[in-house]
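Now for a specimen:

…
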Amino acid sequence: MLDRVALHQIDSVNVLVRAHYLPLFSRLGAYPRDLLDQAAWGAKSKRRLFEYWAHEASLLPWDLQPLLRWRMERAARGTGIWANLKPFASDRAPEAAAMFSRIAADGPLAASDIAETRGPGGWWGWSETKRVLEYLFWSGRIMTQTRRSSFERVYDLSERVLPAAVRDTPTPQEAEAHRDLIERSARALGIATATDLRDYFRLKPEDAHPRIAELVEAGRLQPVRVRGWTQPAYLHADARKPRRSAGQALLAPFDPLIWERSRAERLFGIRYRIEIYVPAEKRIHGYYVLPFLLDGQIAARVDLKADRQTGRLLVQSAHGEATAPSDMPERLSSELAVTAQWLGLERVESASGVPIADLLRRSRAAAAD
């Protein structure tokens, strides 16, 4: 599944569980989360994943590292990175070199080992130490060696983190890497527009569109039209069309199936937005809302919170879609029970005290009206 999905977006919000754990749960069910921890930050012999900027900050299989070296090389030149990191590629390059030398001499270090990590902007304001570390990380000279219990990155030289087989893999030409990344996107998505394909690994149009044409010519992508879509689409050569779509899953806001919101709207006919940064009084569906995928359609949305102190999975709000099947409340309740068990929580409760099934029936009736 790690190979099929290709990347897992990392997000710091932990109101339910950190986002990178959820896509595997949606696809596999209640797997042991420490398997992913071992694959991402465990002993070197067991690691299968590394951290880098792919869609956003992401966990990726090792074989994708050579395909992203072009991005590292651009970052080293100050291209394609945040403005506040660019000076380390030019006039502040000596500071970056000094930091690299310190890690080389002292071994793995976190930003907090060196200086205060928060700058004047509070949580989102990085210190100068954090900025230079992130420049070196983006340019591929250092990598995440592990994560501490606070989820803070611990950095080390890339040459000490990379497995020898990956380190020794030749660096492909940019066009070849872009072509391979787009095909990985197509494998993960099945059917997608050009925008969907390049968004998966955040490729620029000028890097992606010529490669899409080459993949069509090579027979790896098939141009198709989808009823209701205004843009042309592409079907991967190995995609299989199922006879039916059955099953149920809660989807993280950063799940590859729905992270491109226009694609989610095209596929499921819903306008989905994450409302973490929306003032409470303006939220429509809640703070950390997970869509409920049921037999190929989004049937409900639930705002969830793990209350770890009391052992409860709290349903802050629940909204059923007007087109949801009649057994949706029961099937969602079943999925919530599985989710609670997976997270080590004892029970599922509605924060308002109103039974969850009643919340869903009311919202569905309101949506139908």
Summary: The first strand starts at residue 8 and ends at 9. Residues 117-125 have pLDDT under 50 and may be disordered.
